[in-house]
């Protein structure tokens, strides 16, 4: 008896197309050519092109090499989904982790998504007068962005210090010890976004 030809699975075809689109988007975001990604991953340039065009189904080993070269994971690539509900998550205040500085005068709410923590860390920062938040170095190449919503803050990195007030933003290298101080007479409030090395490696 002749073997019946397996019919294409719509779900598998959709996943394959999504993988190609995601790999292409990540490659372009990193400003990598097909040759750059091929050299970094060890996957042939022609194969990457076929994957992005949904002309072939990559093996798990191939996906693993590509994801590592793109600074992400297979799970993250597979999880990309632009066809689902628009609302990804709604978090209540009680669900948002709250940290305090050693002097107890600064609070840091972790409002960024756990799904993007390897790229971007997003915080809500509040400090009482004379409050200090002392931070250890983040991964090499990281850049921290501090936007002042109210108050007067000073940031110190090594021997350098900068001050900022409401409406101003400081961007500084966070891959070394750094300190944020409220040097005003009233409480200060800011948003803090730490962009990790993978996301900024092409900015410098």
Quickly describe the structure.
The protein is α+β, with helices and mostly antiparallel strands and about 200 residues long.
The ordered H/E elements are HHHHHEEEEEEEEEEH
Round the mean pLDDT to the nearest integer and report it.
82
What radius of gyration results from the CA coordinates? 22 Å
Examine the coordinates and then state which fold CATH places here, giving the name of the CATH topology of the largest domain: Jelly Rolls
The CATH homologous superfamily of the largest domain is termed Jelly Rolls
For the record, the CATH architecture of the largest domain stands as: Sandwich
In DSSP terms, counting alpha (H) and pi (I) runs of 4 or more, how many helices?
A: 6
Principal-axes geometry comes out as elongated
Largest sheet: 6 strands, antiparallel
Give the class from helix and strand content and strand pairing. alpha+beta
CATH class of the largest domain: Mainly Beta
Number of strands: 10
The proportion of strand residues reads 25-35%
Low-pLDDT stretches: 1-12
Q: What portion of residues is helical?
A: 25-40%
Q: What oligomeric state is this?
A: single chain
- Placed side by side, the strands forming the largest sheet appear as 1-2-3-10-5-8
Index terms:
6 helices; alpha+beta; elongated; 204 residues; 434 Repressor (Amino-terminal Domain); 2 domains; 28% strand; Jelly Rolls; four-stranded antiparallel β-sheet; 27% helix; disordered N terminus
């Amino acid at each position: 008896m002749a073997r019946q030809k397996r019919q294409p699975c719509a779900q598998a075809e959709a996943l394959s197309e999504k993988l190609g689109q995601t790999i292409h988007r990540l490659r372009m975001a990193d400003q990598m050519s097909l040759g750059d990604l091929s050299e970094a991953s060890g996957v042939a340039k022609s194969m990457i092109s076929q994957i992005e065009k949904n002309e072939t189904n990559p093996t798990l080993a191939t996906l693993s090499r590509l994801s590592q070269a793109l600074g992400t994971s297979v799970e993250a690539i597979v999880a990309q989904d632009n066809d689902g509900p628009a609302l990804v998550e709604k978090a209540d205040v009680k669900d948002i982790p709250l940290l305090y500085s050693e002097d107890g005068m600064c609070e840091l709410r972790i409002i960024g998504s756990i799904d993007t923590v390897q790229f971007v860390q997003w915080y809500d920062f509040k400090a009482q007068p004379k409050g200090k938040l002392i931070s250890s170095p983040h991964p090499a190449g990281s850049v921290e962005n501090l936007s002042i919503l109210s108050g007067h803050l000073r940031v110190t990195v090594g021997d350098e210090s900068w001050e900022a007030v409401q409406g101003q933003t400081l961007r500084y290298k966070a891959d070394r010890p750094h300190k944020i101080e409220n040097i005003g007479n009233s409480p200060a409030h800011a948003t803090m976004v730490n962009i990790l090395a993978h996301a900024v490696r092409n900015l410098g």
